[in-house]
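ok trying again, last paste got cut off:
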Amino acid sequence: MASEKRKRNTNSDVRKKRKRKEEAETGKAEEKSEERSLEALRLLQSATGLQLSSLELESLRQDCVLEVPNHSDIQILGKTVKAVFGSSWREHLCEGSVVEGKVNAGSPAVLIISSSALRCIHLLRGFRSFTKQCHAAKLFAKHLKLQEQISLLKNRVNIASGTPSRIKKLIDAEALDLSRLQVLVLDLQPDVKGYSLLTLPQVRDEFLEVFKNYFYEAMIQGGLRICLYGYQAGVGLKDKHKQGHTIPDT
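nice, full thing came through this time. structure:
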């Protein structure tokens, strides 16, 4: 009897230690995730020049920033964004019909902003499985006329990818509707010359204007999630502007 009691006590101690270890590991993982999200928000704050209050940072810390586990795998981006919509992801990302009073024409649920047309197309590859029924909208100037895009946006759009200057023109033309937007993907991955959305001077300035005027308030109010694709924790942004660098066709 004494032997069995000692055995039960030993097993109980082992379970308690295992539980404490699991709780500690979970706590550390949550703490690291929170630290990464806070660092990402600080980067966004620094890059945009917007000063968030401590209360705003506290409210945004848990929900605002989407983490892409492996920014080198474009398919991970699509899967990460898909998870935001839960079980209704097909309705938001795949359906092809305008729904009166619910889904307006030209109102994407996901909008990607990149520094160039090539980057826009590259990121859309991560969403191919969602765009078979409802094609993604390409919102950049290269080979595409503004009027053609305005006509395209008279149909349902779930996913769109564009450059800051063209996105602004389409919003101002009341062709691009932001009422359904839930995820804003910012492409921070440097191109072959080392430039990105936030480091290429002209494009950066155009992005900041668009972000402050059309997306900042929605982010603060909690209705918009920001995905910093290509962002690496611990790696700050550097101004890589070079004299004579050619601004890409956006």
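cool. DSSP finds eight helices and six strands in the chain. The first strand starts at residue 65 and ends at 66.
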